[in-house]
Design a protein that fits this description.
Elements lengths: L1 E4 L9 H19 L5 E6 L9 H14 L5 E5 L4 H13 L3 E4 L3 H11 L14 E4 L5 E6 L3 E6 L7 E3 L7 H11 L4 E5 L6 H10 L6 E5 L2 E2 L15 H6 L4 H10 L13 H7 L10 E2 L2 H14 L2 H12 L5 H7 L6 H8 L1 H4 L6 H7 L2 H15 L6 H15 L3 H13 L7 H8 L1 H13 L4
Parallel strand pairs: 1-2, 2-3, 9-10, 11-12
Antiparallel strand pairs: 4-5, 5-8, 6-7
The protein binds one RNA strand of 76 nucleotides through helix 4, strand 5, strand 7, strand 8 and helix 5.
Length: 449
RNA sequence: GCCGCCAUCGUCUAGGGGACUAGGACGCUGCCCUCUCACGGCGGAAACCGGGGUUCGAAUCCCCGUGGCGGUACCA
């Protein structure tokens, strides 16, 4: 099996593109596991000279690497094959299968007004202008692994332009030729290409080649059911990375977005995905990209990481060091990298100052009295260990004849400046005796209302 | 307009004529755990787009309708 991912470098790697890449990759690696020699080819579809830039290519390669989607061949620039494409075009011209015409899009429209909207444009050779392929009579059948056969009546198809007036090849010609030359066996790509496929079939048949197997993946939509785009938040792989997601979670989520097998497992390793994935079982309908489930999945993967591993990644993501202690006691409370700092930043930046409500509620007169008692009890501890802190604070409610919460929350607000934090004993132990006492003193000195 | 694809809980899906009182997951929700928030555990509500067929029997097959989406470039 030989598959390819062929993005056009017109921007960042879109999530839909990443999913297409993943499905190709899983298909190839899965087949390889079953003993079938398989390759995943990366080709850059850069024949659109206006929009294709080296920066965009770089972005796409970065994103694929981040996701762990490695390729066996490439990246191959489609433009680098231009000579070959021109040669094919010449050949088709010589054999009378293609012709030159100066007809423009407007002319095509005019032709249809005259011949009926359901009659495709048919031109004649004018010796100059763009190069179009003659569409024969009959019908073309796309054999699709996901949706079965789709039949297109040739009369509806305009003679497709395969090269510009200057001879530069266009997408439908270049794709087919490159897939033939690269001996691609399975073309797995977006459903937006479904209506292009008959045109490519024409090229295959003009060249006397057997077409590959096709699989047209349904498109991805945003939460509102509209085509996924920037305004839905994260729409590209780099945005997901920046938002603090783990690549392994993104892979798992994407794999299950539009595909599922009879097994009800949700958490699937790369290996399991490769073993189980079957492109024929991809759903036929579009799927909505919903970040909620990705968040949950990401939390699962995050918690499965060792403290060292998570610390390492978090330090890379935040550019800070010395996070291990805070990471250890925050791990079960965060779902993405981005959740970390809002939760644990107070260890490093001091208590939060933007939660007046918490101060008002817990640092009132009663609260500060409790804090004073806590300060006295903690002040004599030596060593200031987690066990000692916990034992000391746990004894306080009974001594003061108040509810546990009335001790723990004021302490929490004193240390963190807010009512949400990692465990209070762990937090105090991590801050250490001096800092803990300093923060409690500060809270007693500057009360709420 | 024309061509084409699609349609199961709010979301992602399982289902390929009887095993369906339609299963799982996220989310929502009740309880438990509990120093906050989470995590975790145990429950709950929640769907076959509509109408015709075919059949002893349809979520599953066919037709029509409706709705969504894609294409309709000398873009990819």
């Amino acid at each position: 099996m030989r598959v390819r991912f062929a993005p056009s470098p017109t921007g960042a790697l879109h999530i839909g593109g990443a999913r297409a890449a993943l499905y190709n990759h899983l298909a190839a690696r899965g087949a390889a596991r079953r003993g079938e020699p398989s390759q995943f080819v990366l080709r850059i579809e850069d024949t659109d000279r206006e929009r294709s830039t080296p920066e965009n290519v770089e972005q796409i390669l970065d994103a694929l690497q981040w996701l762990g989607l490695d390729w066996d061949e490439g990246p191959i620039s489609q433009v680098s094959h231009e000579a070959r494409h021109r040669e094919v075009v010449e050949d088709l011209l010589t054999r009378g299968l293609a012709y030159r015409t100066t007809a423009t899009a407007d002319d095509v429209r005019a032709y249809k007004d005259e011949h009926g909207a359901d009659k495709g444009f048919r031109g004649t050779d004018q010796g100059e202008g763009a190069i179009r392929l003659h569409v024969p009579e009959g019908e073309l059948v796309v054999h699709d692994l996901i949706r079965g056969d789709t039949t297109f009546q040739n009369v509806h198809m305009d003679d497709p332009v395969i090269a510009r007036a200057d001879g530069s090849p266009l997408y439908n010609l270049a794709v087919a030729v490159d897939d033939i030359d690269a001996e691609i066996t399975h073309v797995i790509h977006g459903e937006d290409h479904l209506s292009n496929t008959p045109k490519q079939l024409l090229v295959y048949s003009a060249l006397g080649k057997e077409p590959p197997l096709f699989a047209h993946l349904p498109l991805l939509h945003g939460p509102d059911g509209k085509k996924l785009s920037k305004r839905h938040g994260a729409a590209s792989v780099q945005e997901l990375r920046d938002a603090g997601y783990l690549p392994e979670a993104v892979i798992n989520y994407l794999a299950l977005l539009g595909w599922g097998d009879s097994d009800d497992e949700t958490i699937l390793s790369r290996e399991e995905l490769e073993e189980r994935f079957d492109v024929g079982k991809v759903t036929k309908h579009p799927a909505r990209f919903d970040e909620t489930k990705l968040r949950w999945l990401n939390g699962k993967y995050l918690r499965a990481l060792s403290v060292d591993e998570l610390t390492d990644r978090l330090e890379q993501h935040t550019g800070r060091t010395g996070l291990r202690g805070a990471v250890e006691i925050s791990q079960e409370k965060i779902s993405t990298f981005h959740d970390f700092w809002p939760l644990a930043g107070f260890f490093f930046d001091g208590p939060k100052t933007d939660d007046q409500k918490a101060r008002d509620q817990w640092l009132d007169d009663d609260g500060r009295k409790t804090l004073a008692a806590a300060r006295d009890a903690l002040g004599v501890l030596d060593p200031f260990s987690l066990e000692a802190v916990e034992q000391t604070l746990r004894e306080l409610p009974a001594t003061l004849e108040v509810k546990p919460k009335q001790v723990f929350q004021p302490v929490r607000v004193a240390l963190a400046g807010t009512t949400v934090s990692p465990g209070i004993f762990e937090s105090a132990a991590l801050l250490g005796k001096d800092e803990t006492l300093r923060r409690i003193d500060a809270a007693i000195a500057s009360p709420g209302t």
